[in-house]
Design goal:
The protein folds into 3 domains: 124 residues, ATPase, nucleotide binding domain (Nucleotidyltransferase, domain 5), CATH 3.30.420; 105 residues, 2-Layer Sandwich (Nucleotidyltransferase, domain 5), CATH 3.30.420.40; 70 residues, ATPase, substrate binding domain, subdomain 4 (Actin, Chain A, domain 4, Alpha-Beta Complex), CATH 3.90.640.10. It is 39% helix and 28% strand. It is built from 13 helices and 19 strands. It has 345 residues and is α+β, with helices and mostly antiparallel strands. The chain starts with a helix and ends with a strand. The protein has a 6-stranded mixed sheet with strand order 3-2-1-9-10-19, sandwiched between helices. The protein has a 5-stranded mixed sheet with strand order 13-12-11-17-18, with helices on both faces. A 3-stranded antiparallel sheet has the order 5-4-6.
């Protein structure tokens, strides 16, 4: 009876606490929050911070705030860079998910990158507990992505998942409900954005912001020649020589050139993972191919390039952006799977 009472006042949540976006899945309700991992804070007297906005509203402020207000991305490379601000962001998303109820103490599963340290794991757990969680489980991102992509993770066969997020790319080989080999590199969507900013700065002496760079990546970003390689995009920024605002046009070919280095690092991580995979499981991957998940995998023709470089079949997971949180949600609704794939260490 007491357990039922607590279950009624509970509202289990799965959270993909990403570098770029935070997604929340509620049990029996599906994805209820999908917002940028950005927090706008006001720096008051004696260094006291006051949260002004979180998510979409805060992202609108990136690069446009006066001196006393900062738009912060508290997650860097998939881990917590600013503990206090992450806690405030989690509290906001949890509160939004449970409709502001003070009585509800949800049980929460949070996705974490495979290669993070014990200290970083503890930081994630503590920030969730202090934000109002009753119980906190951690699940490694590649495992959640594989479940979300519908891979048969409990079968005795090898499946390779490549999850390209905002801060990290996770490559993992999964068999019998466990990760046999995993490689995590801190090269993903954010590094793609940085590469575009650097390229335009060097070639055109034009300084652009994060949001402009992201828009270029979404519109023209590609990893392999497109059918229409002459597509252009109008870029507005500040001329570093004259100091005045300036507009230039950039082509799809130039964007591909800009993204060359970070994409090569992602492909190198995949090749290393294939080399380290046990022979029996490697044979399975030849049949099953490589599955791509995460927002970074939406880069045009990335699957074509990976197929060309590895010689293996490559497929995109259904709705790569939400793949991780959906996998997390499936675990939330299956208690036996929860015990098998989550970690409380």
């Amino acid at each position: 009876m007491i357990k039922k009472f607590f279950d009624w006042f509970s509202n289990d949540l799965a959270i993909d606490l990403g570098t770029a976006n935070c997604l929340v899945y509620a049990k029996d309700r599906g994805i209820i929050v999908n917002e940028p991992s950005v927090v706008a804070v006001h720096q008051g007297m004696r260094g006291v911070q006051k949260v002004l906005a979180v998510g979409k509203e805060a992202k609108e402020m990136l690069g446009r705030t006066p001196g006393s207000i900062r738009a912060i991305r508290p997650m860097k490379d998939g881990v917590i860079a600013d503990f206090e601000v992450t806690q405030a962001m989690l509290r906001y998303f949890i509160k939004k998910s449970i409709n502001g109820s003070k009585f509800v103490k949800p049980r929460i599963i949070i996705c974490i990158p495979f290669g993070i340290t014990q200290v970083e794991r503890r930081a994630v757990r503590e920030s969730a507990e202090q934000a109002g969680a009753r119980e906190v489980y951690l699940i490694e991102e590649p495992m959640a992505a594989a479940i979300g992509a519908g891979l048969p993770i409990t079968d005795p066969s090898g499946n390779m998942i490549v999850d390209i997020g905002g801060g990290t790319t996770e490559v993992a080989v999964i068999s019998l409900g466990g990760i046999v080999y995993s490689k995590s590199v801190r090269v993903a969507g954010d590094k793609f954005d940085e590469a575009i900013i650097t390229y335009i700065k060097k070639k055109y002496s034009l300084l652009i912001g994060e949001r402009t760079s992201e828009q270029i990546k979404i519109t023209l970003g590609n990893a392999h020649p497109l059918e229409d390689d002459n597509q252009t995009y109008e870029v507005k920024g500040r001329d570093l020589i004259g100091g005045a605002p300036k507009t230039i046009e950039i082509t799809a070919e130039e964007v591909r050139e800009a993204l060359g280095d970070p994409i090569s690092e992602v492909i190198e991580a995949i090749k290393i993972s294939l080399e380290k995979t046990p022979p029996e499981l490697a044979a399975d991957i030849v049949d099953n191919g490589i599955i791509l998940a995460g927002g970074g995998s939406l880069l045009k023709n990335l699957d074509v390039l990976i197929k060309e470089k590895t010689g293996l079949p490559v497929a995109l997971a259904e709705d790569p952006l939400t793949c991780v949180v959906r996998g997390c949600g499936m675990v939330l609704e299956n208690i036996s799977l929860l015990k098998q794939v989550t970690t409380n260490s």
